[in-house]
Write a structure and sequence with these properties.
Length: about 180
Amino acid sequence: MVHQNWRVLLLVDNAPLHCHSPSNYPNIRIKSLAPNLTTWIQLMDAGVIWCFKAHYWNEFTQLALQRDNAGVDKIYHIDQLAGMRLASSAWKTVTPATIANCWRHTRLAPLEAPDTNTQALKEEEAANRRADALRSKAETHPRMMELEFQQMMAALTISHPTERELTEEEIAGKVLLSFKN
């Protein structure tokens, strides 16, 4: 990146473990966001995680259905490697259009691509149709309706609550303050 004269601004949450050595990476500037602000404007919290979880849910449900059809006894029990493969596949399904749309929602970077928003909506609708089809298919398999599966899927929908909803003015003020510090 240095040889290509790239300049990088890396926005991180305020966790103390984020450290940076400017002498090692002079082309990278790291700015920490203010506390209690990251859940509102952090890119991953702006929809990328939700999208990833939805794709993972689809992949896991499809795998459980295949395992049930194959007569596997414990259809939900997968090893770490299988879980990592599901996560990798789910992440590859999160499209650049979705990520660009999430950037737009953070309002941290102006994006001039209205087509991206339309594309992200189309992709989201397609993912919802696939999820609905999988749910319908799962409902025909008694083992897919077991409590264990329901608890696993519920865990994928958990989001972290925040103390209170900030106004747009408060968010903008905190972002500006974090850049001044």
